[in-house]
Amino acid sequence: MPLLAREIDCFPPDLFESPDLNRRTEGTGWWVAYTRSRREKDLMRRLVATNTSFYCPIISKRTRAPSGRIRESFVPLFPGYVFLYGNEDDRLTALTTNCVSWINPVADPIQLTRELAQVRRLIASNLPITPEERVETGIAVRVLTGPLRGHEGVVIERRGKRRLLVSVDLLQQGASVDLDECDVQPF
């Protein structure tokens, strides 16, 4: 049982269904915020309170306590980063929370939207996810069958197992899952 309940990681919940998400219109677009140490959830709570759109991928992490009890917690997939969608006023709102070190605009919103949507679908698959701090080169593939059907990524090998790596190039980080019984097609 988790210590704390899972919190909102995407606001509004239908953020990725917005048609304006892929383009910067009238100063509106994606911003990447680098938070102060371990302040991602604090920033997210404050952004919800001010109706500011954001996405911060959250995954479940299980650890064993010294007593042997297994504890589950929800942690950011990309520690220190929260993605904001809004205008200059939304950026200033985030900066005034005292949770942010810096905020930069995203140069390629279409690519970032595609990568974040893919990470979100990967998390929704409820498969065990491993954060990848360094993006490796491998064979670019599309998954044809199984629970990851439709995902695109790179096949890497970890401890003798094939894994699908989905990366966010802006951060040079990603997430990977096991490719047990999936058919893949290079592209």
Describe this protein's structure:
By secondary structure, the protein is α+β, with helices and mostly antiparallel strands. It is 18% helix and 37% strand. A hairpin with a 5-residue loop joins β4 (58-64) and β5 (70-76).
Domains, number: 2
Please report the total strand number as a whole number.
13
Low-confidence stretches: none
Per CATH, the architecture of the largest domain is 2-Layer Sandwich
**How many H/I helical runs?**
3
* Coarse structural class: alpha+beta
Q: Please provide the ordered H/E string of secondary-structure elements.
A: EEHEEEEHEHEEEEEE
Instruction: Look at the structure and give the CATH class of the largest domain.
Output: Alpha Beta
* Biggest beta-sheet profile: 6 strands, antiparallel
The radius of gyration computed from the alpha-carbon positions, rounded to a whole number of angstroms, is: 17 Å
Strand order of the largest sheet: 8-12-11-10-9-13
